[in-house]
């Protein structure tokens, strides 16, 4: 066996099914070992996109994912997706190649210090300098990737180590047993919750685990406490739940903040300051109980007074067993707030104007999406509209990035979702800016014969930045661009292309695309004048029904 074969064996031992990436000549030995393994290689058209696919595969399956690149330029192309995985808490092993390290005739050709480059954006970054170390380094990489908080790890496999002859075995996994100290303090915590008049529960990114959904629902149903979510906590509990008051897509001044500002206690399940803040804590304001796998990073906007650290599902289960219906809650207040949010956020989509308003687009997409369909959002202005106005019914049914908040991940994430769930409908929504950052992956989707629908929202500009620019009272400058003809562009990849030219065509076209196999791209012009009308004027003039 050689080093590359041993590495592949170790990856098989970790249960790896797919590797996403672009091989270079330094990976050829690894590629050959992969060819003879049961792992499937998904070749992409950019390493960044491979990293985004792996990260979303990890998010959807809960398993550590793997991606591959060559040295130098391939590795530098990984930087954005490595950062995406570490901030977003997605366990991914990034494997890069390298020239031989013992004797090489290549000088410094393509060589950069990839291990050091990866250090600040991974939890563990190592060069394999001896094939003997492969089993322990792989286990360490996977252990680090999965340990709380999950994230990216990196291994560099030089060509000569890949070719080294070696006899070794992968290591087996360790079963970890953890102790609980929460049982002792639970009575105290439960009485704080029982005594609150305006308690709220916040569901954030860290709560997005299979085990947590059930426990959260039991807690909410038993206590009657109202809840909201951060963008990355969307759908962990069905947003149609009668106690749900929506998603805090903005940090302040939205309708939801009428409830947050009145709260005396927030039970914050799974929050992490990497997310855009759902609220700002102030001295003398509400108390926060932070429940997460790890302790809170204290920040000017977040300094919880209580922490319950450890497995969220187990701790919630213990907490629920000490709770009863919270009868001190001012239910009338929360009912009023909820009805105001239903009217102003979820029912305010009536405009027949063309180009379509963001509210109308969100509404039309929600009504045609089946219950378990998956929406994958890139980053742009529309992400705020979807986070705020689109009700998620199931966990991970809205894939979005509110941590690195990078443009370009929407389409690769949708491809990963379709690989994991071939039978579910998957819709990617991108701005014309973000789409063009990884649009080449349309070819990957066509080659993999995926049934996938992509909406490109066309405003011929970096719309989100335009909105911020005008909000700061600055003149319109430096944010407009031209676009290809998206219909012809899609067709040139072997996908089908459509252009919406009337408001009500979106629903009809989407229904048709969902029923027809293949990759479909729909160009949808969007009217962003609503950004200012709602987020600046309407919210400024709103009054909270207190
Ligand atoms: C890789 C990357 N570059 C730049 C940004 C900063 N940024 C955030 S949103 C945005 C505009 C997005 O434009 P587009 O995709 O067209 O969507 P729109 O806001 O117009 O709906 C920019 C430039 C970013 N988040 N990520």
Number of extended strands: 18
Strand order of the largest sheet: 2-1-3-4-6-5
Largest sheet: 6 strands, parallel
Number of helices: 22
Low-confidence stretches: none
Strand content: 15-25%
Average pLDDT number? 94
The assigned structural class equals alpha/beta
Set out the fold topology.
Layout: H1 3-13, E1 18-21, H2 28-35, E2 40-43, H3 47-61, E3 65-69, H4 72-76, H5 79-88, E4 92-98, H6 114-118, E5 125-127, H7 134-146, E6 152-158, H8 159-163, H9 182-194, E7 199-203, H10 210-223, E8 226-229, E9 244-247, H11 256-262, E10 265-269, E11 287-292, E12 306-309, H12 312-321, H13 331-346, H14 358-368, E13 374-377, H15 381-389, E14 398-399, H16 410-420, E15 426-431, H17 432-435, H18 441-447, E16 452-458, H19 463-471, H20 486-492, E17 496-499, H21 505-515, E18 519-525, H22 529-541
Parallel strand pairs: 1-2, 1-3, 3-4, 4-6, 5-6, 7-8, 7-10, 8-9, 10-11, 11-12, 13-14, 13-15, 15-16, 16-18, 17-18
Helix pairs in contact: 1-2, 1-7, 3-5, 3-16, 10-12, 14-15, 14-21
The site of thiamine diphosphate has 19 residues, from helix 15, helix 17 and helix 19.
């Amino acid at each position: 066996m050689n080093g590359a074969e041993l590495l592949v064996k170790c990856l098989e031992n970790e249960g790896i099914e797919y590797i996403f990436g672009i091989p270079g000549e330094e990976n050829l030995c690894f590629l050959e070992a992969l060819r003879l393994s049961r792992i499937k290689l998904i070749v992409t058209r950019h390493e960044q996109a491979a990293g985004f696919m792996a990260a979303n595969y990890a998010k959807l399956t809960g398993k550590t994912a793997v991606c591959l690149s060559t040295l130098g330029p391939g590795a530098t192309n990984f930087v954005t997706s490595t950062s995406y995985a570490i901030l977003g808490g997605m366990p991914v092993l990034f494997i890069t190649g390298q020239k031989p390290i013992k004797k090489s005739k290549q000088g410094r050709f393509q060589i950069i210090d990839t291990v050091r480059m990866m250090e600040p954006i991974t939890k563990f970054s190592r060069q394999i300098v001896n094939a003997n170390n492969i089993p322990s380094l792989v286990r360490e990489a996977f252990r680090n990737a999965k340990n709380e908080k999950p994230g990216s790890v990196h291994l560099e496999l030089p060509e000569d180590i890949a070719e080294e002859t070696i006899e070794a075995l992968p290591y087996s996994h360790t079963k970890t047993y953890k102790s609980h100290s929460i049982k002792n303090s639970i009575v105290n915590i439960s009485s704080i919750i029982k005594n609150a008049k305006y308690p709220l529960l916040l569901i954030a990114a860290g709560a997005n685990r299979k085990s947590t959904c059930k426990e959260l629902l039991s807690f909410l149903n038993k206590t009657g406490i109202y809840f909201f979510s951060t963008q990355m906590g969307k759908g962990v509990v069905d947003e149609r739940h009668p106690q749900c008051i929506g998603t805090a897509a903005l940090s302040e001044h939205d309708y939801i903040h009428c409830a947050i500002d009145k709260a005396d206690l927030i039970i914050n399940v799974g929050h992490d300051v990497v997310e855009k803040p759902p609220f700002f804590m102030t001295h003398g304001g509400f108390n926060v109980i932070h429940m997460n796998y790890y302790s809170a990073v204290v920040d000017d906007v977040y300094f919880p007074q209580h922490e319950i650290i450890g497995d969220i599902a187990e701790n919630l289960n213990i907490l629920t067993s000490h709770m009863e219906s919270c009868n001190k809650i001012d239910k009338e207040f929360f009912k009023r707030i909820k009805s105001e949010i239903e009217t102003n956020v979820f029912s305010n989509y009536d405009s027949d104007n063309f180009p379509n308003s963001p509210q109308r687009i969100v509404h039309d997409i929600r009504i045609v999406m089946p219950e378990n369909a998956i929406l994958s959002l890139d980053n742009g202005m529309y992400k705020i509209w979807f986070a705020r106005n689109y009700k998620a019914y199931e966990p991970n049914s809205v894939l979005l990035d509110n941590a690195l908040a990078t443009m370009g991940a929407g389409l690769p994430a949708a491809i990963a979702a379709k690989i994991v769930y071939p039978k579910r409908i998957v819709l990617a929504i991108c701005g014309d800016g973000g789409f063009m950052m990884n649009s080449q992956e349309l070819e990957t989707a066509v080659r993999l014969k995926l049934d996938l629908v992509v909406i490109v929202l066309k405003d011929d500009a970096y719309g989100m930045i335009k909105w911020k620019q005008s909000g700061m009272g600055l003149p319109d400058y430096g944010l407009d661009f031209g676009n290809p003809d998206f219909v012809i562009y899609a067709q040139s990849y072997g996908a089908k292309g459509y252009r919406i030219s009337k408001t009500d065509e979106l629903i009809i076209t989407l229904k048709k695309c969902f029923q027809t196999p293949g990759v479909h791209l729909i160009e949808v012009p969007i009217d962003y004048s609503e950004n200012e009308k709602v987020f600046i004027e309407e919210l400024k003039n709103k009054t909270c029904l207190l």
